[in-house]
Structures are given as structure tokens and as C-alpha cells.
Amino acid sequence: MPMPRNSRPSRGKGSRSTKIQSMENTRSDAVKAMESQEGNKEENSQAKKSPSSPQGVAKKRPAFGDLTNAHQNHPKQSKKVAVKDTAKKVLRNAVAHDVCKNSKKYGPKSLPEEEASVSSEPIVKEEAILVEEEEPSVEGSSAEEEPGPSKMPTNETRKVEDDPYANNEYAKEIFTYMRKREEFFPISNYMVKQHDISKEMRAILVDWMVEVQENFELTHETLYLAVKLVDHYLMQVVCLRDKLQLIGSTAILIAAKFEERCPPCIDDFLYICDDAYQREEILRMEINILHTLKFDINIPIAYRFLRRFAKCAHVDMEVLTLSRFICELTLQEYDFVQERASKLAASSFFLALKMKNLGNWTPPLECYSGYQSTDLFSLVKRLNFLLTYQPQDKLKAVRTKYSHKIFFEVAKTPTLDMLELEEILKNSV
């Protein structure tokens, strides 16, 4: 029988409720499936980003970036390589801290033994890689050094390395150049035209300059250069005796500016001159000396040659100090003014070797000094005469200076008899 219009079929309550319940179950299953998929994606992404995660696997890489990114998702930082040792220590501490933190958070099961061993291996391997990367830069800076185990240099080695005149690569060229420059700075017998000063006045001035060098703790190069400046200035300018001390103090000031790191100030020179001069006088004399010498004050001095010869002969400091004492005695003697600095240094060193009975003038010394032993005999005799017969009642500055223990008391070294020296020189040929 057909159903009337506008009439609905009658449904049971049980069938309707069953259909609604099935729809809700289907919806809940779909939601669970979506949640499980999202959870799997998050777990997979965390496993890729964090090797210390309990669900991921540790991955070896040549940089320290992966280890430090355990709790910082910055993949760009993994490309940076640590170079300094301080960076290595920081990275190592950060890794240890992260591993301990993860072990507390996830329990002992989250970090298996294999993973712990793998996380510790890259640190050792990559440190070795960094050392290999750093070594070529060191070898490149000293490419000419001989291969072998590097040793810590001693204090004497450091001093030699710090001295540019003692560098093995270009020391010979430097001293060859200095010997050539000696030809441009000859000193004539200028006392002939000096009517108001004498040799004795010059000796007193140099003796005072030695005391100034000691009091100001200046280098020996400063003293030798200052005496050279005085001689070259007096060779061209006639001087009065009341200006002689002004010339000497100003010469020390110029030499100190040329040789010292921290030269004394003008007030110090006014003090040592007992305020005999004004500041303007020292400044005016400084300008006058520099203009007279045409600002060419890089004059070869005997002290630098002495150090070079001592290094070539491999003698100790006492022998070098004895030769310095002999050479410094000649500064206040006008008779040695016209001698070349290199020859004076070679003769002083030759006499010191004979006084210490250390052998003859060797071929290396002949090569580096440019003098044969026979070229030095006459000057060696004059130096020994000066050392033996110089009056010691006045002009004591040099002898007193080298009588201290700091200078090995070389001024007290027994001198050679003239006849004995003649016999030694004959046997040296």
C-alpha cells in the first residue's frame, strides 16, 4: 500500500542511535590518525636535528656544530669550525653539560652505550684535524728552518733573535754595509784648529759622559754614538771651552733619541749640567749639531762590531766584556779617534782573546771582520800599552765601571807584558 504524501517513514530509536555512534567513532578514529601522523613527523624532525634525542641516532660530522646544537636548533652554526683552544674547551664543556642533562631527563635507557661512545669520538678526531690545520701556518712562517723537534729557546737565544743585527739571514749584509759607511765618516786631526780646547779637556768630557751613561742607565750604543757626534761636530766647528759640556750633553740627548726607547728629557740634562745652561741653549745646540752633520747620524760604532765578532767566535760574556772594556778605554783617548770603528773593535777583541789565552784569529773571524791577524798587530800593541800604562789616578770612570761584579771585574784582569805580547804575535802568524 503506497504511503501518503507528506508522511515520513517511521524509524526505530535504536537504529538511529547506532548510526550516530558509528559516525562519532569514525570521526574520533580520523582525529587519532591525524594526531599520530603529526607526532611521527615531530619525532622524525627531532631525530634529525638532535643526535642526543632518545628517539634519534648520533651522526658523525667533521665540525663541532652538531654536538652543540643538542638544545639549540640552529643548523647554520654547524658549518663553523672552532680554531682556538679556548673555543675547544667551551664546546667540550657544553657537550658534557648537554649529555648529563639529557641522561637525567630521559633516563639511562635513552642513551645506549654505543651512542655515548660515538658522541665522545668526534671530539678527539676533530681536535686532531684542527691541529693539522693550524700547523701549516706555523711552518709557513719559518719555511727556511731545519726540520726537527722544536726546542724552547733559551734567554740568550731570545736576545739574539730580538737583535736585528744578529739575525743570521741578513747580518753579514748589514755589517758589510756598515763597513762601507765607515768611509763616509773619517775623522781628521781637528785639534789643530781648536785653540780653546785640548786633548785633556776632551778626555775629561768623555769621562763625564761615561758617568752620565751609567746614571741614566743608557745603552753602550748611545755612549759610543754620542762620542762620535762630538768628534764630528768639533771637526767642523771651532768651539770654546765653556760650551764643551753643552756639546757633550746635547750629543747624548741626540744619541739617546736615536738609540733608546725612552730617552731622558731635557730637564734631566739640565740637572746633570748643574743648571749651567738653559733649555733654549740645549735646543739651539741640538739644531746646530744636526744641521752641521746634515742629519746623517747613523755613524758606525765599534760596539756593534764587537758583539758581532763575539757571536762569530762563540765566546762567553766575560770575554766580550773584557773586549768592551779595552774598546771603551779608547773613547777618551784622542790618539785613537782616527781609527776605523771596525778595526778598533777587531783589535780589542783580538787582545781580549790573547789575554784569556783563547787561541788565534780564526778564519771565520777573518771572514766576518775583513781583517787578517797581521793587519791588527800594530793596533793591538797600542791597545795593550794603553791598558798597561794608562794613569789611574784620574779619569777613573771606565775602570771603576768595569771593576764591578756585574761586569765580571774585567778591569782587574792581568795585562800582558809587551815582550810577552811580541812573542805571542809572532806565534800567531
UniProtKB/TrEMBL annotation:
Ranges where the Cyclin C-terminal domain occurs: 300-416
A single MF term (Gene Ontology): cyclin-dependent protein serine/threonine kinase regulator activity
UniProt keyword Ubl conjugation present: no
Region annotation Disordered: where it falls in the sequence: 1-163
Biased composition (Acidic residues): 129-147
Database matches in Gene3D superfamilies: Cyclin-like
One Pfam match: Cyclin_N
Cell cycle as UniProt keyword: yes
Annotated Cyclin-like domain residues: 207-291, 304-388
Record's keyword terms, sorted: Cell cycle, Cell division, Cyclin, Mitosis
PROSITE patterns reported for this sequence: CYCLINS
Similarity comment: Belongs to the cyclin family. Cyclin AB subfamily.
UniProt name for this protein: Cyclin B3
Annotated source species: Sarcophilus harrisii (Tasmanian devil)
Gene that this sequence comes from: CCNB3
